[in-house]
Design the sequence.
């Protein structure tokens, strides 16, 4: 079984792509061949008559992947809706078998696979099937990304409990500081509370960074080794 993670979030906009790119850059920096996927991307802008999967392109760049974009991102849709609803507007059925086929093709030349979901675990992908079902079908442990803000504790605990109840192996939680420091006092306490209360370990916290001014943040070797031990 190929080692890898399915990266989900407590909500949309919490920084799943940022976390996935950080993991990709870090594993790549450690000398591993990294395969990445964004199986379904909605809300894609159009350029020169083609839909542009912005998140998938970021993942491809972070991993240094030369794989075809059609394999990294087999489904891209223009409407910023759930995958099922966005696809139904265009009479498209999102097929798990197609996604699994792309996954298997990418995994051949990869030491570790990183799959980024859309939205959270219960977002509908096709009739009767959710992102959690996709993670289960790929047989990958889940990493949950949570934004460090008021509400993070409840959202994180709910997501992790949901994942476990559905039979998913939760490798851990990443807490992401997606915005600069503000007056949200909870940001100084969420990490400790989540670490204390959550059924899955809090892996690490991503500091806020201004990408225009700072070098990319990378994970240390010890943390990478710990993550690899949690991968399937």
Sequence:
């Amino acid at each position: 079984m190929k080692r890898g993670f399915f990266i989900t979030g407590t909500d949309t906009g919490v920084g799943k792509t940022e976390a996935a790119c950080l993991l990709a850059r870090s594993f790549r920096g450690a000398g591993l061949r990294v395969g990445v996927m964004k199986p379904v991307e909605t809300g894609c802008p159009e350029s020169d008559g083609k839909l542009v999967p912005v998140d998938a392109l970021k993942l491809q760049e972070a991993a240094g992947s030369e794989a075809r974009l059609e394999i990294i991102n087999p489904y891209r849709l223009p409407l910023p809706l759930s995958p099922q609803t966005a696809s139904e507007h265009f009479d498209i059925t999102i097929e798990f078998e197609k996604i699994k086929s792309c996954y298997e093709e990418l995994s051949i030349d990869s030491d570790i696979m990183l799959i980024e979901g859309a939205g959270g675990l219960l977002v509908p992908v096709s009739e009767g099937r959710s992102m959690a079902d996709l993670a289960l079908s790929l047989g990958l442990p889940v990493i949950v990304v949570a934004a460090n803000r008021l509400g993070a504790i409840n959202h994180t605990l709910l997501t992790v409990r949901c994942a476990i109840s559905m039979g998913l192996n939760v490798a851990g939680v990443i807490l992401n500081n997606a915005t600069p420091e503000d007056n949200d006092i909870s940001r100084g306490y969420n990490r400790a509370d989540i670490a204390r209360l959550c059924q899955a370990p809090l892996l690490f916290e991503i500091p806020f960074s201004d990408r225009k001014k700072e070098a990319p943040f990378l994970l240390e070797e010890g943390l990478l080794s710990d993550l690899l031990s949690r991968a399937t």
